[in-house]
Design goal:
single chain, about 180 residues, alpha/beta, Uracil-DNA Glycosylase, subunit E, DNA glycosylase, Uracil-DNA_glycosylase-like, uracil DNA N-glycosylase activity
């Protein structure tokens, strides 16, 4: 199984960080490609994207100021197959990417992703009190996996919080110039 390509560049508004690619994502080479994954629907319904994108259009998010990566590159059937060592390496790599690329916001797609990244256990949804990498905002949203037992409208509401945060961060940035 092949890892899939990150879609990242300097100074993005948001970098979305998933656990790792699904088998389907590895087969297609695109992020959130499993038909049971609701990532693309959630982004659209929350007002983060102007329309519902397809997994094959994942690189087009860069034009909107959004990037995609994972804490672990190795594709698996489920996140519980990821080893502690893979998380440890993935966390270090992710911190390096964030330090180098300086996104405004890092959105963790799943509390478990943020737990592995931050080492914290009790994590609220939304903006975190302090960020792992200074100068960025850590935002925690539910996983978009079809396995998540939250109601879709509750998940979308948390992502609407991200949409509002993106808007306010962009306005602050514009006022500085």
């Amino acid at each position: 199984m092949e890892p899939i390509q990150d879609h990242l560049k300097d100074h993005l508004d948001v970098v979305f960080v998933g656990f790792n690619p699904s088998i389907r994502s590895s087969e297609t080479g695109h992020h959130f490609a499993n038909p049971n994954n609701r990532f693309w629907k959630i982004l659209f319904e929350a007002g983060i994207t102007p329309r519902k994108y397809l997994p094959e259009e994942d690189s087009a998010l860069l034009e909107l100021g959004y990037g995609l990566t994972n804490i672990v590159a190795r594709p698996t059937k489920s996140a519980d197959e990821i080893t502690k060592e893979e998380y440890k390496q993935g966390k270090e790599l992710l911190q390096q990417k964030i330090l180098k690329l300086k996104p405004l916001i890092v959105c963790f797609v799943g509390k478990g992703v943020y737990q592995e990244y931050s080492g914290k256990r009790n994590i609220p949804w939304g903006t975190q009190e302090s960020s792992v990498v200074p100068g960025t905002i850590d935002y925690v949203a539910p996983s978009s996996s079809g396995l998540v037992r939250m109601r879709l409208n509750e998940i979308i509401d948390i992502y609407k919080g991200l949409a509002n945060l993106i808007q306010s961060v962009k306005e602050n940035k514009a006022n500085e110039h």
